[in-house]
Every structure is written in C-alpha cells, then in structure tokens.
C-alpha cells in the first residue's frame, strides 16, 4: 500500500483496498536510518523518508521534503498512521497468534519499502521521478547536493492536501481504536476484527466521499 498518493481518489481507493484484508503478511523488521537534510541518491532519500514514517519520526521525515514547513501536518499524520497499523499488528498477533499475523500486511511504509527494491527512480539532472505508482509518480529534487521528495507540488491546491490529511487521520484513528478493542477483548477472532475494520471503512466512505469529490473539483 503506497502511502503517498497525490491523486485524492487514488489515495482513498488504495487505502480502502488495504492488504489488511488479505492473507499475506509483511515481516516487520526494524528499519535502519541515517537522518540528514537530503540523501545522495533518490532511492536513499525515499528509503530514509519511509523509514522515518515507519519509525513515527515526523521531524526526520519532513527534513527529507521540499517545502517541509507546508508538510508538517502531513508527516505527523503519516507517522500516526504507521503507529496505528503497527499497534494493530502487535495486538492482532498477541490475541490470535499465527492467524493474527495477517494484520502485519497493513503497515503502509513497509509496502513502499518493498516497492523501492522493485522500481528504480528515473533521474534527469537535478530532478527525478519514482514511478512506483505510474498514475502519480513521486517527484524529487536535488537541493544543495542532497535529494528531497517534492510531495507538496503534487497537490494541485491546498484543499486537496487538507482532504488527504483528513482521510489519513481518520484511518489512523479508527485503526488505533480497533487495536485497543483487540487488547480489551472486544473482538474474539480475526474475522471479527476484519468485520469491524470494514464497518469503520464504510462509515468513513459515507462521511468523506462527498467532501472528496468537492475537493477534487
């Protein structure tokens, strides 16, 4: 699941089709990061960014962006999203053992890291694109010798960034709440957890799709 989706409709649909509901698990291995204000190659910058997000370190993530002051809320929410999905994975495995490992598949930054090994960035002088999502390739710029992700320019207007943040924050909140429910014994099986996640997803769709359409105009 690619966490960076400049197209709001793509963002929403990708998340609604989350691997949370698949049977494939992604191993949660600690990610190693060297934080700096840019990286020597586009791939290093992308890896450092997603590692910072996975580690719930929004300041480190923002340091790897063009226009970081405009993306601080975005980085904070993405970090919270990773925290919520990790909490769900841990709670699921603690409650349901091997069967609960299915929830590891939902951690967004880990999916992006996997694709980095499969899709190379295309460099053109001091700019580059990472076509992990061909419909909305990630842009990068080389600034003072270091590469940074240019996520802000992907949003056509501030309202789109605001809506993207709203969507991801809502997901982070309900995934975190479901994780708490697992720990409290509110859900007695993996199927029950998945049903609750679907219910929350559908509720979010009903509430946000009209706003999403308006923001996309």
If you had to describe this structure to a student in words, what would you say it looks like?
Helices cover 53% and strands 8% of the residues. Helix 4 (72-96) runs parallel beside helix 6 and helix 6 (158-183) runs antiparallel to helix 7 (190-216). It has a 4-stranded antiparallel sheet, with helices on one face. The protein has one domain (8-216). It has helices at 8-16, 42-54, 58-62, 72-96, 108-116, 158-183, 190-216; strands at 122-124, 127-130, 138-143, 146-149. With 217 residues, the protein is α+β, with helices and mostly antiparallel strands.
How would you concisely characterize the structure shown here?
This protein is an alpha+beta fold and 217 residues long.
What characteristics describe this protein?
217 residues, alpha+beta, 4-stranded antiparallel sheet, 7 helices, 4 strands, 53% helix, 8% strand, globular
Q: Number of domains in the coordinates?
A: 1
Distance, first to last CA: 25 Å
What is the ordering of alpha helices and beta strands? HHHHHEEEEHH
* Helix content estimate: 40-55%
Proportion in β-strands: 5-15%
Count of DSSP strands: 4
Mean pLDDT: 82
The major pleated sheet works out as:
4 strands, antiparallel
As laid out across the biggest beta sheet, the strand order is 1-2-3-4
Low-confidence stretches: 1-37
Q: What integer value in Å does the Rg equal?
A: 17 Å
Secondary structure tally, helices:
7
Q: Quick one: overall form?
A: globular
């Amino acid at each position: 699941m690619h966490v960076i989706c400049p197209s709001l409709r793509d963002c929403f649909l990708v998340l609604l089709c989350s691997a949370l509901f698949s049977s494939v698990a992604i191993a949660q291995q600690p990610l190693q990061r060297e934080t700096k204000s840019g990286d020597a190659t586009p791939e290093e910058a992308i890896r450092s960014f997603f590692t910072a997000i996975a580690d719930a370190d929004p300041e480190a993530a923002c340091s790897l962006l063009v226009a970081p002051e405009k993306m601080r809320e975005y980085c904070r929410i993405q970090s919270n999203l990773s925290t919520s999905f990790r909490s769900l994975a841990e709670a699921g495995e603690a409650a349901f053992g091997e069967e609960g490992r299915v929830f590891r598949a939902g951690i967004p930054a880990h999916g992006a890291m996997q694709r980095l090994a499969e899709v190379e960035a295309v460099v053109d002088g001091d700019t580059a694109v990472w076509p992990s999502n061909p419909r909305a390739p990630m842009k990068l710029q080389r600034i003072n010798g270091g590469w940074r992700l240019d996520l802000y320019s992907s949003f056509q207007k501030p309202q789109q960034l605001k809506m993207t943040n709203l969507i991801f924050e809502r997901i982070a909140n309900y995934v975190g709440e479901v994780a708490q429910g697992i720990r409290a014994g509110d859900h007695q099986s993996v199927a029950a957890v998945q049903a609750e996640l679907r219910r929350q997803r559908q509720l979010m769709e009903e509430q946000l799709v009209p706003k999403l359409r308006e923001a996309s105009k």
